[in-house]
Amino acid sequence: MKNNFIFLLLILFIFGCKASSETFYTANISYCRDVPVSNEYNLPLFPDNLLCFANYGKTTKDFIQCADNDNERPYCMGGVAVASHNLSICSESKYKDECFFGAGLVSDIEFCNQLNEGYSKEMCILGFSYNKKDKNICEQLSNASFLSYDCYLNIAKNTKDPHICESMQEGFNQECFFRVAIERKDKYLCKKSGEQQEKCEAIVIDDLARRKLDYMQCYEIKDYYQAADCVIYIAIKTKDDNLCSSLMEGFAHVYQDCYSRVAIEKNDLSLCEKSIGGSEHSACYTNILERSSNPEQLCKKVKGFELTTCLKYLHCDKGKNVKGCLEFIYNVTSDVESCKYQETSGDKNNCYSEIAVRMNSPAICLKGGDKDICLSNFAYEKNISEVCELGTGICYIRLARLKNERNLCFKITDENKADCLQEFDLKV
Predict the structure, then answer these.
(1) Are the CB atoms for 404 and 427 separated by under 8 Å?
(2) How many Cα atoms occupy the beta-carbon half-sphere of 141 within 13 Å?
(3) Would you state the pLDDT for residue 345?
(4) Number of domains making up the chain
């Protein structure tokens, strides 16, 4: 258990978070479980809630309130030990080292100095050093353990002092330079971070670009997806959809998704058309339309395929003018030109059929789509079989199927007649 915890602590101080002990003062342990984990520097995550559990224990002053699981209880009990000034709570604990570390997180150095020399005391001091800036604290820790390294690494980050890194052993100091470079926003210092140099430079450039809202800096990042994410962030913040055009198409839809996110931020439905093919295309229309009290007015401003798509996500019951919205949809769907922008052939055929029936005009079936499908649908709805004379024998075959009337096959004058009759004869 001790070896595993040393590794956990190494992760803590290499990838530690910026929270102070005051940050997670809480009287509800369930809150601690919901504390967002830190993803600082895009490195492996470390659970910020350890600090929260320690504060919870210090607040409740009752170790019975600490959850009975190894991930929470030791740190919570450490907080209880500090609040009650009772060292035995940790020393008699199953996981006393973790308990003393938790105590150190929420105590002062005097509490740790009450302990006899040994590993438990060093764990307490290490916890105490978590958010401190005094490197002299680290001198109380044994150089034979990782604890001293963890301490100096964290103090270097807190003080942003690269000189601390220079005093560290070669090979161990690269992680230190990595963290300090990011804290200082110094991409030149990244050159001392060894194998993490490229990652370090990307993080620094990304942060500076976002702070200055300078999208050109984003393209200094070597990884295209990280660069694109940087550009999209700035495009959203500045509400500048022109920045999206600088992105390359074909890279996991970043180009389209940029337009979608900016459209939502600007509440500009016209930009949603440029998000077609992206993963957030439907979200673009849905978000903007649902936020509007008169969504049909937004759809009225667009044309062609974009209008058809807009209608797909238009829900009249969510607006103020339900009647006007429904009338708008009726008028648009009676527009034959809108049918040619339907995505699939089936949708196109249904579009022409519906308008032909609504307008009581079979001639609409001749304007596009599969005329036999449209004419047979019209003939069935209007009960006028002669309409199929405008099409081919396929129209009569489909109508015969819809009405289940074999006699309609005899109205066919081409080679489809035999097929129609055979189909019905096989049913007998």
Answers:
(1) no
(2) 24
(3) 87
(4) 2
With cut-offs at 50, 70 and 90, classify the pLDDT of residue 18. Answer: very low
Q: Note whether 278 and 260 are within 8 A (CB).
A: yes
More confident residue, 308 or 8: 308
DSSP string, 396-414: HHHHHHHHT-GGGGGG--S
C-alpha distances (whole Å) from 151 to each of 26, 133, 155, 234 are 26, 10, 6, 36
418: Cα within 13 Å, side-chain hemisphere? 2
The domain boundary residue, chosen from 123, 144, 159: 159
pLDDT for the residue numbered 24: 46
Secondary structure (3-state) at 66: coil
- Classify 38 as helix, strand or coil: strand
The whole model's pTM is what?
A: 0.62
How far apart are the C-alpha atoms of 175 and 153, rounded to whole Å? 8
DSSP 8-class letter at 116? P
The string over 276-285, giving b where at least 16 C-beta atoms fall within 10 Å of a residue's C-beta and e elsewhere, is: eebebbebbb
Judging by beta carbons within 10 Å of its beta carbon (0-12, 13-18, 19+), is residue 325 exposed, middle or buried?
buried
Q: Domain containing 304: what range?
A: 213-315
In a domain, 297, yes or no: yes
Per-residue pLDDT of 374-396, as tens digits, reads 999 999 999 999 899 999 999 99
Give the chain's length.
Answer: 428
Residue 371: inside a domain: no
Q: Which residue has the higher pLDDT, 311 or 82?
A: 82
Asked whether residue 246 is domain-assigned, the answer is yes
Please provide residue 115's backbone torsions phi and psi, each rounded to the nearest 5 degrees: -80, 150
Q: Do 150 and 1 fall within a single domain? A: yes
Spatial separation of the C-alpha atoms in residues 52 and 368, rounded to whole Å: 66
What are phi and psi for residue 152, nearest 5 degrees? -60, -40
Helix/strand/coil percentages in the chain, nearest 5: 70, 0, 30
The residue whose two tokens read 């342990």 is 29
Burial of 68 (0-12, 13-18, 19+ CB in 10 A): exposed
Return all residues near 199 (Cβ < 8 A) that are at least 6 apart: 42, 178
* Collapsed DSSP state (helix, strand, coil) of residue 368: coil
Q: Give the list of residues 6+ apart from residue 146 with CB closer than 8 angstroms, or none.
A: 6, 9, 10
